[in-house]
Design brief:
Elements (H helix, E strand, L loop, with lengths): L5 E5 L6 H9 L10 E2 L13 H12 L2 E8 L9 H11 L4 E5 L13 H4 L3 E5 L2 H21 L4 E3 L2 H6 L3
Parallel strand pairs: 1-2, 1-3, 3-4, 4-5, 5-6
Helix pairs in contact: 2-3
């Protein structure tokens, strides 16, 4: 089933579930709604299924995604199954990608970032409500203009953006 205009979050469910749950708690009446989805909440994947079957099911879940948020935790670089496939889908479909570093790094962290994401057009930020809210509203339009220009580098917000958000 496709969910239109959704924000899809991918992460290491074994190690970073707490950060994801914190993020879902931010969706309340005081802030604009974020239509968050992740494969763990709508889990119809079977770990014993063939990789081809699992990838097809992931593609179904990712259909209609407006932006992909990748939570970059301590083991994100070594993930080769679902997170990698979700990033591949986003790259293939030219979706805006926001890489949120759980270690407070405000730019690409070469030691933790999945290798598939290192050479892609993506915004690298620290993990936090204000900066993710800002990125969800600002990055998709910026991403679209950068795609038109043929840009493919990693991006990050300068310190003044964080200061303006009180961070």
């Amino acid at each position: 089933m496709a969910y239109p205009n959704k924000t899809y979050v991918c992460f290491d469910a074994d190690n970073d579930m707490e950060s994801f749950l914190e993020m879902t708690s931010w969706c309340d009446d005081e802030r604009p709604a974020i239509n968050i989805h992740n494969i763990h909440a709508i889990n119809t994947l079977d770990d014993s299924a063939s990789p081809g079957s699992s990838r097809r099911k992931l593609r179904e879940h990712l259909a209609g995604t407006r932006v992909l948020i990748v939570l970059i935790g301590g083991k994100a670089e070594s993930l080769y199954k679902y997170v990698r496939w979700e990033i591949e889908y986003a790259v293939e479909h030219k979706l805006p990608i926001i890489a949120a570093n759980l270690n407070d790094t405000r730019r690409l962290d070469p030691q933790l970032c999945p290798s598939i994401l290192k050479d892609q057009l993506a915004l690298h930020i620290s993990f936090g409500r204000e900066i993710i809210d800002y990125a969800l509203y600002e990055w998709p339009d910026t991403h679209a203009s950068l795609v038109k220009k043929g840009e493919s580098d990693d991006f990050f917000y300068k310190n003044h953006v964080y200061r303006n958000l009180g961070l």
